Amino acid sequence: MSDDKAVGVIGLGLMGTAITERLLEHGYEVTVWNRTREKAEPFLKRGAHWSDNPIQDCRRVIISLYSSDIVAQVIEQMQSGLRFEQTLVDTTTGEPAAMIAMGQRLGELGVTYIDAPISGSSEQTRRGEATVMVGGTPHAFHACQDLWPILGKNVFHVGECGSASKMKLVTNLVLGLNRAALAEGLAFADAIGVLPAAALEVLQASPAYSKAMDIKGQKMLKRDFTVQAKLSQHLKDIRLMLAAASSAGLDLPLAQTHAEILERAERLGFGELDNSAVINAYVRRTT
C-alpha cells in the first residue's frame, strides 16, 4: 500500500465514523484512534488498523473531534509523532482563532495543518453528498486533492488556514436557522389545525423552501430523532458564532434567539438527540 493510500483518522464520532467508512470503501488503508476503543472495533473487523498514535504512523491524518480544545489536547498527547512534511486535516467545527494558532504552531515544525470542516450531516457525508470548506495554502489544498471527494461532493478552497472554520460558522448559522424555522412552522401549523404533513408538502413547493425540509422534515413529522448530528453540538457551534460576532462588534439577534431555543430543548432532555428534535422546544401553553 502506497503512502498516499495510508490515512489516519482521529475521532470516531458521527462524522469520524462516516469519514472512515468512506475511506475504507475507496480502498484506503486506514489507521484509527478514538478515546474509547470500542467504537473502532467494527472498522478493525473491516481491515482498519488501531494505533495509539496515528500521527506517528501516518503521513496524512484526518481529525474529527468535538471542539478546538479537544483537538489541541489530542495533538499534544500525540505530539511525539509529529514530523516534517506531515499533513493534518482537521474537520472539526472549531474556533477560528484557535485553528489559526494551531496552524502557525504546527507550521513552525514543518507540519501542514488544514482546517476542512464539513457542512452536512454524518449521513450526507456517508453518502458523499456533503460540502467541504478548506482553509490552507494552495499547495496544501492540491496535495490532498484525492481526499476531498471522499469528504464531500462540493469542495471550496476558501483561503488560508482558519478561513474554512469561519465559513463553517456562517453556513451553520443559516442552516440552523432554516431548521429552526421549519420546526416553528410545523409546530405553528399543528397548533392552528393544519396537518403538519400537508404543511411540509406545501412548504417544499413554495418560495419558503430550504434543504432542511428535505433532510429534517420527515424526521420532525415522525419524531424520529435518530442522531445524524446532535442538537447540543449545534448549540456549541452557535456559541462559537456569537463569540466571533461579539469580537467583530456585531449583534446576531436571530442566532441569539436560536441559542435560547436550543437551550430550552436541552433542558427538556433532547440535547443528545438529532438536531431535528428542536421541534420539541415548541411546547403549547397549558394556560
Summarize the structure.
With 287 residues, the chain is of the alpha/beta class. It is built from 13 helices and 9 strands.
Give the topology.
Elements: E1 6-10, H1 14-25, E2 29-33, H2 41-45, E3 49-50, H3 54-57, E4 60-63, H4 68-77, E5 87-90, H5 96-107, E6 112-115, E7 118-119, H6 122-126, E8 131-135, H7 138-143, H8 148-151, E9 154-159, H9 163-191, H10 196-204, H11 211-222, H12 231-247, H13 253-267
Parallel strand pairs: 1-2, 1-4, 2-3, 4-5, 5-6, 8-9
Antiparallel strand pairs: 7-8
Task: Describe the structure using short key phrases.
Rossmann fold; six-stranded parallel sheet; 2 domains; 13 helices; alpha/beta; 287 residues; globular; N-(1-d-carboxylethyl)-l-norvaline Dehydrogenase, domain 2
What do these coordinates show?
This protein has 287 residues and is of the alpha/beta class. The protein folds into 2 domains: 158 residues, NAD(P)-binding Rossmann-like Domain (Rossmann fold), CATH 3.40.50; 115 residues, N-(1-d-carboxylethyl)-l-norvaline Dehydrogenase, domain 2, CATH 1.10.1040.10. Helix content is 49%, strand content 13%. The protein has 13 helices and 9 strands. The strands form 2 sheets. A 6-stranded parallel sheet has the order 3-2-1-4-5-6. Strand 2, helix 2 and strand 3 form a beta-alpha-beta unit. Helix 9 crosses helix 11, helix 9 crosses helix 13 and helix 12 packs antiparallel against helix 13. The chain is globular and about 65 Å long. The mean pLDDT is 96.
